[in-house]
Amino acid sequence: MAQLTYRDAVARGIAQEMRRDDRVVLIGEDVAGAGGVFKTTVGLLDEFGPRRVIDTPIAEQAILGAAMGAAMTGLRPVAEIMFSDFFAVCWDLVVNEIAKTRYMTNGQVTLPLVVKTGNGGALRFGAQHSQSIENWAMAIPGVKVVTPSTPADVVGLMAAAIRDDDPVLFFEHKGLYAAKSEVPDGEIVDSLGTAKVRRTGRDATILALGLMVPRAIEAAEHLAARGIDAEVIDVRSLVPLDTATILGSLHKTGRLFTVEENPRLLGWGAEIASIAVDECFWDLDGPIQRITTPHVPLPAADSLEDLVLPSAELVATTVEKALQS
Amino acid sequence: MAQLTYRDAVARGIAQEMRRDDRVVLIGEDVAGAGGVFKTTVGLLDEFGPRRVIDTPIAEQAILGAAMGAAMTGLRPVAEIMFSDFFAVCWDLVVNEIAKTRYMTNGQVTLPLVVKTGNGGALRFGAQHSQSIENWAMAIPGVKVVTPSTPADVVGLMAAAIRDDDPVLFFEHKGLYAAKSEVPDGEIVDSLGTAKVRRTGRDATILALGLMVPRAIEAAEHLAARGIDAEVIDVRSLVPLDTATILGSLHKTGRLFTVEENPRLLGWGAEIASIAVDECFWDLDGPIQRITTPHVPLPAADSLEDLVLPSAELVATTVEKALQS
Amino acid sequence: MRLPLSDHGYGQHDIVLPPKAQDRHDGADIDLSKRLSVYRKLQEMRQFEKRAYDLFMRQLVKGTSHLSLGMEAIAAGFGAAMRPDDYTFATYRGHAHTLARGVPMTPVLAELLGRANGLMGGKGGSMHLTSVKHGMMGSYAIIGAHLTIANGAAWSAQYRRSGQVAVCFFGDGTTNIGAFHEALNYASVFGLPVVFVCENNLYMEYTAIADITAVPRPAADRATAYRLEPIVVDGNDADDVYLTALSVLERARRGEGPSLVEAVTYRHGGHSRADPGKYRPDAEVEAWKAYDPITVYRGRLRRLGVADADLDVIDKEVADAVELATEEAIAGELPSPASALTDVWSDGGSSWRN
Amino acid sequence: MRLPLSDHGYGQHDIVLPPKAQDRHDGADIDLSKRLSVYRKLQEMRQFEKRAYDLFMRQLVKGTSHLSLGMEAIAAGFGAAMRPDDYTFATYRGHAHTLARGVPMTPVLAELLGRANGLMGGKGGSMHLTSVKHGMMGSYAIIGAHLTIANGAAWSAQYRRSGQVAVCFFGDGTTNIGAFHEALNYASVFGLPVVFVCENNLYMEYTAIADITAVPRPAADRATAYRLEPIVVDGNDADDVYLTALSVLERARRGEGPSLVEAVTYRHGGHSRADPGKYRPDAEVEAWKAYDPITVYRGRLRRLGVADADLDVIDKEVADAVELATEEAIAGELPSPASALTDVWSDGGSSWRN
Ligand SMILES: Cc1ncc(C[n+]2csc(CCOP(=O)(O)OP(=O)(O)O)c2C)c(N)n1
Ligand SMILES: Cc1ncc(C[n+]2csc(CCOP(=O)(O)OP(=O)(O)O)c2C)c(N)n1
Ligand SMILES: [Mg+2]
Ligand SMILES: [Mg+2]
User: Would A177 disulfide with which of A7, B28, C354, D324, CB 3.0-4.6 Å?
Assistant: First the structure.
């Protein structure tokens, strides 16, 4: 049991898998010599050498194409897209090629690959380097979508993603890279498609992802002080979606709230709200409310960015107001 | 008043605006000499000449970049992305550049441009040429999203889109190009951000878009025969969203259904369902149900494609079952 | 010869005529049995594509389809030179490349008809023909992407030291999209065993490549930008293609990295089913139809002493095979409804929730 | 000189040294008043960037920032040659290019500090500096896109027959992404009045351009792929840049189409605020720091008879301007909360519903 940063947990998870399976290779911009611009791949070049850990040109389509072609011919590549915003320059590889090929070929092609990326805001990087885009990926049939919120989950979910035979988009939250917490020693392998209850409660269910998880937990503590016992669920995986855990909690509490870093329209919470109002309508004791970034690009100034991203205080007051009315 | 195809309505709408404003120019692959691969720009080269109607290389990023740079310096370009699936190769220009620049520059840059595209399935083009991706665009702050379902709406909404000072993504449904109906003579200018009630009813509200609109109307007729009086709303515009019309109808009927061609997860109906369960919870007499393509890529075989796309019959039986239970 | 805009509303460009002489490669050192097998392949591709076209006209093939009529020598020449375990990456215009790898006609035709006995059970269609066990790693319908995917297969071969080579076919219009540039630089930097083959048929869909490309030779004139040799071959002469294929495949196997080959050719018909191809000047079309890959090759075999009768036997055998394939394809069941929901995931299903 | 992997864990490549002689362009036909204004610009950029750096260290600038220290001659040389109504398109490394167009220091510094008096009210930040009224059409932080956008501005100028030229600056690493290729071909095909300027500082972020590029000169060696002349200039000699800029701008104004200029330079510091730049061999860093654009230019002016005292006056005036800008920026208010929700749309608001 040792303290580990979220950042170091990424490298640990990849190293764990590279040690046991030499089909696992890593490519991306500055991932080798520099150990990644976010230092999430430090030490991998030294341990596994330049055949398995490779610096690429600035060519995201070439990177994902290389990963896909290698995956369909026997390797298990991990590719990095430095900032998730850059998925926009290689989106074709994700949505039209990687996501659809198994289906189009009637199962002839298997694509065991992971695309890791730095996602999310709160670092004052401005509109083109701060987006939370898990919802873009959730809308595409054929890719799995994972977002860990703790160092231990990073290691275990990265291992599960690399061992999975389907393409997994692995969203690391840039705002959590410096976060540190206990991680068990030895091999850790988590399972995809599972949410985690971070705090149990009776009065309301609060769903959160990535950086919003610690904020939701903090909000729940404020709420406890105000006599409201909220359950906080770390969704962790959007595809597959752990509807059992989510709807089970809603069945218990009767109230559902989502805390989403993405802009409002078609954020991931919209899908869950639509599932809940269809399948659990009679469980609902009141409206489902989504707490999201307003539907605007992210501003660069720290004072403005803090204003638009959902805060623990906003979550707490929103839930409190809703339960009082 | 003359019969016009949806296909010809596109060219008529563009021509109407090119005649009144020589800042309006058209670029795209095969849009000039060939009049478009879907024949939606026939006659424009002859009338407006090669300075204003331009065939481009296969380079979607270059096409949207040209449109954006021209729009910020005094022109009002219309650019074609032949199939909406190809937005994936130029998504960066849409989401990171066109959508965000006005905001990032604090209003210094205005982008009066339209991107027209052939969207949707039912033509047996397979997984990479049949997608309905309005939901991809709806998730991006800074672009307006329009999908007409009739020839008259095509003319009027195209005119409105070209006259609008913001970027508009104009989704033409490939499955409707051959559809023919009455279109008034003379200039037609519609307004963005407005839904249209296609059939009034008391028992249920059915929302549809594009090719799903005629299917929803047909379903409503089946339902009428079964004693259910359904209201059918052609959403037409996802951004801005005409929540007044949509929620007003829900207030009246108490039941909401969406008919979406997109795959299930985060289809456009998810956002509307989440708004409804938040703002109109007490109006709801029962679950909100979304009728969508299952969460799979589109199969090529006609028998399979017909199976996965929502049909009038599926809509009718779903609504009927829901209202009976 | 320059055609003013007025002659045909499709831009302004020189028309490109094929070589006059058809015997330029008669003397090539290729043994006759190999040449006869190439001739058979050419016939298979030609007769298959014609049959596919007839079936469209009979409304049996839905959707769209892109034929290689007139372009068969490229697929046949490369197919004859490739190792069985080499990888092919093709475009939506991929019927010939699929047959070139030895995939039987029946499942290909059945796929066009959307039948359960189709190569992908009807789920992919004409534009996505794939047969992994034949090394046919897929047909891709979004311009550019598959060049980067071919790099990945080549990288994997290099990593596994398998000696396999990835061969990626694409059109002239594809040389202007970003993925082309990324893929070529990437392959060159890492010395990948990949061969990029530009099938330059002078047109993208309806627009002449010359009207929207900065250089006259869309692929060859870009080669030096990636530290590669410019290589241009006669795409209508299967022997020229075959010999070039042998040398670039060998180069890749020797670990000397990628090659970029521009094969100049022409399509007899339109871009796709819907297209009559009217934008092409008649003089150009006629000249190229006369310089047909099958005419060229059959003429050569006759000059080399093969009797017409022997060639007719091959033609007839192929015709019978096409007949049989047609019957088997048409007799195929429709795909089971359940198959619409299979194979999104490696567990065989499409579930996104528990 | 080749550095083995062991020396620095960052790939294997030759180190590139600057020219030895600094007087190569002393004799250029540029009048002294112009040269003095160029010197002043160089000083403004240098002193501004140093101040920006100090303010990061004082935690006053949040987020990231990319400085042009060592690369100022390119911005200064082009800025001096451009017409006031020409268009500039820059990258996240755009402070110098913004000052080059005459944008005052205060709003630029205030933008870095996220203040209401910032150039974009704090909403864009360091990576997106834009001042339309100065022809500074934006700084773009996703690699490649802005080359295609610059084409659009050039197309508009061509369409309006305004005689304006769009100048687009980008780095060496950008030459390997797809948008570069699409933009260059597109500009060449349509003969657009655009000048593409590759600031080749030998590195992308932490990776040497030589390690991941197929050709030695990332831009110039690609020029012929677009029917353009390969042009390489000394990016640390403002006079060489200025004279080249004049000629390519004129060419564009004459309607002769785009140019691609590779300006070889070096950054004194790391890629961005976070980066110490350790991946660069010391010998390389020292040589380039010695061949500093300001040293080069000041030396030239002295050889041409300008007294140190007169240059010191300029330096001092610039220093005072930087001081004032710093005070005004720090004194700036925080942006109003309401501004977070303005200007998504042309109506000034951000509403997505009625
Ligand atoms: C990214 C993208 N843009 C446009 C298209 C539409 N499209 C399909 S084929 C084609 C022409 C391709 O021309 P070329 O590369 O010369 O191949 P050919 O069809 O001539 O064999 C176009 C524009 C596409 N499939 N993908
Ligand atoms: C599409 C994309 N990929 C990656 C990045 C991350 N990134 C920002 S700057 C940079 C290096 C760019 O190098 P170069 O073009 O040489 O410009 P320089 O910073 O050296 O001026 C990278 C990889 C990005 N912003 N956009
Ligand atoms: Mg072609
Ligand atoms: Mg650089």
Answer: A7
The contacts of residue A31 (CB under 8 Å, 6+ apart) are A41, A44, A53, A54, A55, A56, A80
Rounded mean pLDDT for each run of 10 residues along chain C, 354 residues in total? 41 82 96 98 98 95 93 98 98 98 98 98 98 98 98 98 98 98 98 98 96 97 98 98 98 98 96 87 95 98 98 98 98 98 98 97
- Please identify, by atom number, the ligand 2 atom nearest to the C-alpha of residue D145: 1
Running DSSP on this structure, what letter comes out for residue A95?
I
List chains adjacent to chain B, taking adjacency as at least 3 C-beta pairs closer than 8 Å: A, C, D
Helix (H/G/I), strand (E/B), else coil: A291: strand
Ranges assigned E (strand) in B251-319: 256-263, 289-293
Task: Match 């702050």 to its residue by tokens.
Answer: B141
d(CA B65, CA A253): 50
**Residue A261 Ramachandran class (φ > 0 left, ψ -120 to 50 alpha, else beta):** alpha
Cβ neighbors of C316 (< 8 A, separation 6 or more) are: none
Q: CB neighbours (10 Å) of residue C351?
A: 13
Of A24, A189, D227, A109, the closest CA to residue C140 belongs to A109
Position of tokens 């989502």?
A258
Q: Which residues does residue A241 pair with via DSSP β-bridges, in sequence order?
A: C353
Secondary structure string (H, E, C) spanning D98-143: HHHCCCCHHHHHHHHCCCCCCCCCCCCCHHHCCEHHHCEEEEECCC
Inter-residue contact B316 to B259 (CB < 8 Å): no
Q: Which residue of A has its CA nearest to D350?
A: A296
The DSSP symbol for C85 reads T
Give Cα C202 distance to the centre of its chain: 15
Question: Which ligand is closest to the CA of D272, given by its number?
Answer: 2
| Closest CA relative to residue A84, chosen from A133, A123, A121, A40 | A133
- Residue A129 annotated as catalytic: yes
Classify residue A236 by its DSSP letter: -
**pLDDT given at position D194:** 99
Q: In a 3-state reduction of DSSP, which class is residue D66?
A: coil
Could you tell me the two tokens for C46? Answer: 């030609």
| ipTM (interface pTM) | 0.98
Strand partners, D247: none
Confidence of residue D53 (pLDDT cuts 50, 70, 90): very high
User: B24's torsion region: left (phi>0), alpha (psi -120 to 50) or beta?
Assistant: beta
Tell me the nearest-neighbour CA distance from A115 into chain B, angstroms: 17
The residues pairing with A207 across neighbouring beta strands, listed in sequence order, are A233, A258
Partner-chain contact B100 A297, CB within 8 Å:
yes
Indicate whether B152 pLDDT > 50.
yes
- Which residue's CA is the closest to the ligand 1 atom numbered 13? C204
Residue C27's contacts (CB-CB under 8 Å, 6 or more residues apart) are none
* Section A8-19 average pLDDT: 98
The verdict on a CB contact (< 8 Å) between C343 and A106 is yes
* Structure-block tokens of residue B80: 């074609």
What pLDDT is stored for residue B84 in this prediction? 98
Q: Atom 9 of ligand 2 has which residue's CA nearest to it? A: D205
CA-nearest of A70, A10, A72 to A37 is: A10
Q: For residues D228 and D219, give the distance between their C-alpha atoms in angstroms, rounded to a whole number.
A: 11
> Considering only CA atoms, which of C114, C126, C124 is closest in space to residue C333?
C114
Tell me if residue A175 falls in helix, strand or coil. Answer: helix
pLDDT at residue C2 in the model: 39
Q: CB within 8 A of A69, min separation 6: which ones?
A: C137, C148, C149, C150, C151, C152, C153, C154, C155, C156, C166
**Degrees (nearest 5) of the Cα angle D117, A262, B161?**
75
Q: Strand (E) positions, A166-255?
A: 168-173, 180-183, 196-199, 204-208, 230-234, 237-239
Find out whether D75 and D68 touch, Cβ atoms under 8 Å.
yes
